[in-house]
Write a structure and sequence with these properties.
two-stranded antiparallel ribbon; 5-stranded parallel beta sheet; 5 helices; 43% helix; 9 strands; alpha/beta
Length: 159
Amino acid sequence: MSTYSIVIVDDELDAITTLEKFLGKYCPNVEIVGTADCVEAAVKLLNEVEPDLLLLDIRMPDCSGFNVLKQYNSTKTKTIFATSYDAFAIDAFKVRAIDYLLKPINPLQLRESINNATEQIRMKNALKELNEILQQQQVDRIALPAQDGKFLTAINDII
């Protein structure tokens, strides 16, 4: 089983502690690589560690979680919002959030959300590896699905 790095950003220490406990108990495939309690510290940390996953609160004293995402623009990191406010869900999905969890966090929902995110990362990495292999090899044929199985055809024959 692969391990995925995660950063938690929340201005409430109790929320960070709760998320750390839930992740430790229910999500053995993630490793917490840092926490932050404000936008400035979050952006600095994210740029340093570039994690696979980000658990992000929305309302913080110095700004919002959306400002974190504006300042840290990575296609690698998948974001899961963990917040007390349901009013920002649509905005969260507009910035390509994987999930939107409402506090108090349900540990089983957190586990499901983490599993969905890590599966997306795993699939993206597998596709990237496959593309790299195909780039290295001179492949001139491809297997295509057919009603009775698969058949090979020359790539040049595909329009």
